[in-house]
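Backbone-to-sequence.
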């Protein structure tokens, strides 16, 4: 009987210790998350990123699914604010998927993640994945109030566009594009890609991008790189993406130089060339492209 009691007491003690440990870890997580927000407000971006990442790791190691969802959301929102959109979309998608399981597809918490991810897609010119989220967000507007409601309405307004202006732009751009005006072809391609003023038509959009790009418009070349890199409106094709990014990079487009460097580093769509990748990253960083500068720092640290 005494042995049973001792086992019972030890088990209870261990449970209490586990509970205390979880409370301590949650307190650290809360403090770390708040510290990340303060560093972000101060403009200490690198420190803020470290704190957000540390909070996510703590949540994964010691806490529950709710804290993990919140940490993913915080980190994704941070990256969207910093316009590091590929990272933002990655973390926000993961947070949304987790939150739909935790609180349901129509909860307030899920709605916040939909809003943030829809904003990231819009900033990334992704009008394939973005509009379905905007449609979902429209049905969740009642969850929001005050400043949140203002922001949500701005997101929805951005996706709706201005039908009268769009129709006028289509009428203005179409004859110019038919005459071979490269900028008109590019702008009209954007409208077909987005479905603004016309029915969304990826084939027509790509045709117009190619007409413009083949005449040397760097913006069109870069966006064709994005299309084949991400598989937006066309099958993913690393070789084509690499070619279009290279052409835009050679014209001095910083984001294209960064993207092309990534293909060279990874050997996507062609041979791997670390030395050339570093040179392209330097060219991009010299123009002030922060992601390129960050990539160079990462490469330098990995060499130590």
């Amino acid at each position: 009987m005494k042995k049973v009691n001792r086992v019972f007491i030890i088990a209870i003690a261990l449970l209490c210790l586990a509970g205390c440990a979880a409370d301590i870890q949650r307190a650290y997580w809360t403090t770390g998350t708040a510290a990340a927000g303060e560093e972000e407000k101060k403009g200490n971006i690198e420190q803020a990123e470290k704190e957000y990442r540390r909070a996510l790791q703590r949540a994964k190691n010691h806490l529950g699914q709710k804290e993990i969802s919140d940490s993913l959301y915080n980190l994704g929102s941070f990256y969207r604010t910093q316009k590091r959109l590929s990272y933002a979309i990655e973390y926000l998608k993961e947070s949304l998927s987790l939150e739909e399981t935790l609180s349901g597809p129509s909860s307030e918490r899920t709605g916040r993640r939909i809003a943030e991810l829809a904003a990231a897609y819009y900033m990334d010119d992704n009008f394939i994945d973005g509009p379905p989220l905007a449609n979902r967000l429209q049905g969740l507007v009642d969850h929001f109030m005050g400043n949140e409601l203002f922001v949500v309405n701005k997101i929805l307004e951005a996706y709706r566009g201005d039908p009268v202006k769009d129709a006028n732009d289509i009428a203005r751009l179409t004859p110019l594009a038919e005459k071979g005006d490269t900028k008109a072809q590019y702008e009209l391609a954007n409208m077909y890609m987005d479905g603004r003023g016309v029915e969304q038509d990826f084939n027509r959009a790509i045709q117009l991008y190619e007409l413009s790009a083949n005449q040397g418009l760097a913006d069109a070349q870069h966006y064709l790189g994005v299309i084949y890199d991400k598989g937006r409106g066309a099958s993913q094709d690393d070789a084509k993406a690499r070619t279009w990014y290279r052409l835009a990079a050679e014209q001095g487009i910083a984001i294209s130089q960064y993207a092309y460097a990534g293909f060279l580093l990874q050997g996507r769509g062609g041979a791997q060339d670390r030395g050339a990748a570093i040179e392209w990253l330097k060219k991009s960083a010299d123009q002030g492209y922060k992601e390129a500068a960050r990539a160079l720092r990462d490469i330098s640290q990995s060499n130590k």
